[in-house]
Amino acid sequence: MSRRKKLYEGKAKILYEGPEPGTLVQYFKDDATAFNAQKKATLEGKGVLNNRISEYIMLGLGRIGIPTHFIKRLNMREQLVRQVEIIPLEVVVRNVAAGSISKRLGIEEGEQLPRSIVEYYFKKDELGDPMVSEEHITAFNWASTQEIDDMMAMALRINDYLSGVFSAAGIRLVDFKLEFGRYYEGDMVRTVLADEISPDSCRLWDMDSNEKMDKDRFRQDLGNVTEAYAEVAKRLGIMKESGQAPANDEGK
After folding, report:
1. CA neighbours within 13 Å on the CB side: how many for 91?
2. Over 80: is that where the pLDDT of 9 sits?
3. CA dihedral 82, 166, 93, 155 (to 10 degrees)
C-alpha cells in the first residue's frame, strides 16, 4: 500500500488511486469514531466486516437496478470503486425513531414512524453536519433539483430493499445514511450511490429483543461492537458461524 498514492483519508476509510483511470481503491479501516470524532477507538476486524457487508449490499442493490460506485471487492479490506464527484450531502432514511430525531421532536426511541422519512444533512464536520432543506440545497447549488429527485427516489427504493433483506435475517432497519456521487460518462452525468452501507451507517436492532447491532454499541459504550457486526454478517449469510471469512476471502 505504501506504493499506492493516497488521495483521501476519512474517519473509517482511505481512498487510493485505482489501477485504471476513473477507478479508486477504497480501504476499510478498523478505526471507530463518534460525536464528530470526539470519541475514537480502534476495533480489530471492524473494517473487514464492513467491507464484506457493504459488498453484499452493493451487489444486491445492483441486481435491482440501483447504480452504485462499487465494482468488486479486491481482498479482506479493499474494494475497487468508480471515481465519482461526491455530492456534499448525507441522505438519512428513518423508519423508527432513534438518535437525533428523538431528541429534536421528543419522540420516544423505538416508536415506529408514520411513514419513512428522508432527511438531508450538509457534509461539513466543523459544523456538525447540520440538517438542511431542499431550499438550502438548491440555493447553495450543492445539488440540482433533478439530483435531489434522483437521490430521494433511490433512497426510498434502497429502503424497501434493505428493510426486506434485514427483516428476513431477523433484524429491524431503524434508519441509515447514504451518500451519492456524480459519475461522469463522457458528456453524460449519472447520480450513483457511493460510500458504504454497513453497521457503521445503519441502525440495526434485533427484531425480537431490540438489542442494538450497529455503531450505537460504540457510541453508547455497550461493548461487543465487532461481535455485533459479525452477527449481522452471519445472519446475512456472509460469514461462517464463527464470524470468520470464508476460505476464499482474499478475492473473487
Report:
1. 30
2. yes
3. 40
Q: What is the pLDDT of residues 166-213, one digit of tens each?
A: 999 999 999 999 999 999 998 999 999 999 999 999 999 999 999 999
Query: Residue type for 66, please?
Result: I
d(CA 86, CA 192): 9
User: What amino acid is encoded at 4 in this protein?
Assistant: R
Q: Cell numbers 450513483 correspond to what residue?
A: 192
Q: pTM, whole model, 2 decimals?
A: 0.92
Name the grid cell of 8.
483521501
Query: Which pLDDT tens digit goes with each residue over 134-166?
Result: 999 999 999 999 999 999 999 999 999 999 999
Assess contact for 112 and 101: CB atoms under 8 A. no
Cα–Cα distance between 20 and 51 in angstroms, integer? 21
Q: In angstroms, rounded to a whole number, what is the distance separating the alpha carbons of residues 243 and 226?
A: 10
Q: Give the other-Cβ count within 10 Å of 107's Cβ.
A: 14
Residue entry with cell 471507530:
32
Q: Which residues, other chains included, contact 130 with Cβ-Cβ below 8 Å and sequence gap of 6+?
A: 121, 122, 124
Handedness of CA 91, 95, 100, 104 (dihedral sign): positive
Residue 125 DSSP label: G
Quote the CA–CA distance of 252 and 247 in Å, as a whole number: 11
Q: What are phi and psi of 251, to 5 degrees?
A: 170, 170
Cell numbers at 62, concatenated: 445492483
What nine digits make up the cell of 202? 445503519
